Amino acid sequence: MSFVDIKANLQRIEKRVAEAAYRSGRHPDDVTLVAVSKTVYIPEIKDTINCGILDFGENRVQDLIRKIKCIPQARWHMIGRLQSNKVKDIVGKVVLIHSLDRWKLAETINSRGQHLGITVPTLLQVNISGEVQKTGVDPSDVESYLDSIGQLRSIKVCGFMTMAPQSEDPEQARPVFRQLFELREKLKGRRFTNVELKYLSMGMSRDFEVAIEEGANIVRIGSAIFSNA
Ligand SMILES: *Cc1c(COP(=O)(O)O)cnc(C)c1O
Questions:
Q1: What is the rounded CA–CA span in Å between residue 8 and residue 228?
Q2: What is the model's pLDDT at position 122?
């Protein structure tokens, strides 16, 4: 196993995040870096916190629960597909669920929020690329989802999340990110209840600069931090 210099990786990434933010006419503080810690253990997460990172993303509920117990002071994000029967384990413990991808899940999250007396912040995951293996709401259904979310009083949609198709060339992802941005622009001015389209969670290790250039204000970065390039 080779040693990974998390601090050096983060410094390089934060510089690239900042430069991409300036290129898109924004301040680097506008972009939140979520460190995707799904491949690493507690010591690496603590090292990352010592470098000033507070936000961490996990895609499996079991790992999330275990890591939250060890490191409750971090801000935890659920970024992976969420089964309805696991909702009760994470609602109230994560700052944001990025993967709201179906109506049934919205209802389950809402019930749990109601039970706890809280409003649960979520992002609607949108399947821009149309790849069948990707989950997410079809872009043409997003508006009706947002209309309906108002019926559910204990859940809030705070923006959108998407995943671009896997590709060596980050430019391949640009049209996907641009379409999500445009969808948000189109719907931002409409009146919905329990909806505030503040966040665009898009961009991973390979394509985060393109995502920021296209308006991402949350990027989810794993391997670029926790493995050697
Ligand atoms: C793993 C994962 C990431 C991070 O991917 P990297 O390529 O390692 O940066 C981002 N988002 C989701 C939903 C993931 O599952």
A1: 10
A2: 98
Reference 79, options 118, 108, 36; nearest CA is 36
Residue-wise pLDDT for 27-47, tens only, equals: 999 999 999 999 999 999 999
Exposure of 95 in the CB half-sphere (CA atoms within 13 A): 12
pLDDT at 2 over 70: no
For residue 115, the SS3 value is helix
pLDDT > 70 fraction of the chain, expressed in percent and rounded: 99
Centroid of ligand 1 to alpha carbon of 119 (angstroms): 26
Q: For residue 205, which atom of ligand 1 is closest to its CA?
A: 9
171 pLDDT band, cuts 50/70/90, is very high
Spatial separation of the C-alpha atoms in residues 2 and 14, rounded to whole Å: 23
CA distance 53 to 115: 31
3-state secondary structure of 79: coil
On the 0-12 / 13-18 / 19+ scale of CB atoms within 10 A, 23 is exposed
Strand ranges (DSSP E) for the chain?
32-36, 55-58, 75-78, 96-100, 120-125, 155-161, 195-201, 218-221
3-state SS class at 196: strand
Grouping H, G, I as helix, E, B as strand and the rest as coil, residue 225 is helix
Q: 60 CB less than 6 Å from ligand 1?
A: no
